[in-house]
């Protein structure tokens, strides 16, 4: 009987290194998570508020509850990934995400009777807290983690280049998703759009992921990169310590990278959730807000390609410091957001920061901590990242409610970023110690 990794075909018999197929389908897996990402949810926020008569702050709080609770399961999910592999995790997450979208498409049917049994705010928190919990766990959490970690297991010396490719493709896909979803909502309505996306995930893409996903090259009789590069005479390959989760979280470097990723995720989530409101309060249209994202994506793609190549030649902490610097600049830009040059300044710096975010989120953990416990270690980072992203919309909603604008929220993030910029000076590669 054939091992499952060789069904329905043996990757070792492909005419070229199967890792490139893994790279393609891993990118597809990350892009399929878009409906569970804030950038995908953002297109549905305003139609949902108007259709159901929900208060913005109530939906933001439901988003906080759902995202927060989903984050608590990501570290156990990472450990499960280490046991059962990317193939089953990707398939299960894709099917689960599709089912959640089908439930979301019918949320109005459930909300009406629930709002008659409970006060309207509690009905929103209960129903949408549960649905967003499932949405964020399956989409932003497990499907993204499984897809990215799978790619990193198939490459070693080419890990920087592949990370750049993943980041570039993700930046483009995530930036055009809101506009694409807006178009679909315009034709099918928000309920019909979620219904179509859910059916596509379950009926088309989940089976494809099960066919083409593979957890690691060794299980298929291959090695990372497809071949080993020759070593110089008399030299030995540098040993790599396989950090456990407990060992990784005791290092300064783990928290320097993780907390930076957390702040970026918080801002990205808040901006995506409130993007129409942010730009309207600055005297611009919601179309200009969504229109900034493709321009930011162009910068992110350039940074991903250049940064992926450069990551194999410099310490990642320099890229971490550059990311924190670009974060500082775009946060100042959002605080002073006005029509004109500030708009393009934010697009450039926000895009650069997003590009570096994609590289560091993918590349740091296998390079610094090894592949053996990659799921658990990256899972803890994902837990912290999703926790922070959960707080983003709620923090900025409170900023709007109590400070009559979003400046207080951006200022808080700016203060935290400047502290992390100082701490990043000590974020050295733990393999060297």
**Total domain count:** 1
The number of E-state strands comes to 0
Q: Structural class, from secondary structure content? A: mainly alpha
What is the CATH C level class, in words? Mainly Alpha
How is the biggest beta sheet arranged?
none
Please compute the radius of gyration using only Cα atoms: 21 Å
Named CATH topology: Growth Hormone, Chain: A
Looking at this structure, what is the CATH superfamily?
MFS general substrate transporter like domains
Report the end-to-end length measured between terminal Cα atoms.
Answer: 45 Å
Order of helices and strands: HHHHHHHHHHHHHH
Number of helices: 14
Question: What share of residues are in beta strands?
Answer: under 5%
What keyword list fits this structure?
globular; 77% helix; mainly alpha; Growth Hormone, Chain: A; 433 residues; 14 helices; 0% strand
Summarize the structure.
The protein has one domain: MFS general substrate transporter like domains (Growth Hormone, Chain: A).
Structure description:
The protein is an all-alpha fold and 433 residues long. It has one domain (24-220, 242-432): MFS general substrate transporter like domains (Growth Hormone, Chain: A, Up-down Bundle). It is 77% helix and 0% strand. It has 14 helices and no strands. The longest helix has 54 residues, at 159-212. The mean pLDDT is 88.
List the helices and strands and how they pair.
Elements lengths: L18 H14 L5 H15 L3 H16 L2 H32 L1 H11 L2 H35 L4 H54 L32 H4 L3 H30 L4 H25 L5 H20 L5 H29 L4 H30 L3 H17 L10
């Amino acid at each position: 009987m054939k091992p499952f990794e060789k069904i329905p075909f043996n990757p070792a018999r492909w005419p070229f290194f199967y890792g490139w197929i893994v790279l393609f389908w891993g990118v597809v897996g990350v892009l399929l998570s878009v409906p569970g990402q804030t950038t995908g949810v953002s297109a549905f926020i305003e139609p949902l508020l108007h259709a159901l008569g929900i208060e913005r702050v109530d939906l933001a709080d439901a988003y906080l509850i759902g995202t927060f609770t989903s984050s608590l399961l990501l570290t156990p999910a990472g450990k499960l990934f280490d046991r059962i592999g990317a193939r089953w995790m990707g398939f299960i997450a894709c099917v689960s995400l599709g089912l959640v979208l089908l439930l979301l498409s019918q949320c109005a049917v459930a909300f009406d009777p629930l709002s008659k049994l409970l006060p309207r705010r509690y009905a929103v928190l209960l129903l949408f807290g549960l649905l967003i919990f499932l949405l964020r766990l399956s989409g932003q959490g497990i499907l993204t983690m499984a897809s990215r970690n799978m790619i990193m297991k198939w490459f070693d010396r080419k890990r920087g280049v592949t990370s750049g490719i993943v980041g570039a493709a993700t930046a483009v896909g995530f930036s055009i998703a809101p506009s694409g979803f807006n178009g679909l909502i315009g034709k099918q309505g928000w309920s019909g759009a979620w219904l179509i996306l859910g059916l596509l995930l379950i009926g088309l893409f989940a089976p494809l992921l099960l066919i083409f996903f593979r957890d690691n090259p060794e299980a298929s009789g291959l090695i990372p990169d497809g071949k080993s590069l020759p070593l110089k005479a008399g030299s030995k390959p540098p040993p790599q310590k396989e950090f456990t989760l407990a060992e990784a979280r005791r290092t300064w470097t783990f928290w320097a990278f993780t907390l930076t990723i957390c702040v970026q995720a918080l801002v990205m989530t808040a901006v995506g959730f409130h993007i129409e409101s942010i730009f309207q309060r600055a005297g611009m249209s919601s179309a200009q807000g969504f229109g900034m994202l493709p321009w930011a994506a162009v910068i992110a793609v350039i940074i991903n390609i250049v940064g992926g190549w450069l990551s194999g030649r410099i310490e990642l902490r320099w890229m971490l410091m550059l990311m924190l610097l670009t974060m500082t600049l775009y946060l100042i830009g959002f605080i002073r957001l006005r029509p004109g040059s500030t708009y393009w300044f934010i697009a450039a710096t926000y895009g650069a920061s997003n590009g570096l975010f994609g590289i560091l989120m993918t590349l740091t953990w296998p390079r610094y901590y090894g592949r053996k416990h990659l799921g658990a270690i990256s899972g803890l980072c994902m837990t912290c990242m999703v926790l922070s992203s959960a707080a983003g919309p709620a923090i900025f909603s409170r900023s709007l409610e109590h400070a009559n604008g979003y400046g207080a929220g951006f200022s808080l993030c700016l203060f935290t970023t400047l502290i992390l910029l100082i701490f990043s000076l000590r974020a050295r590669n733990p393999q060297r110690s």
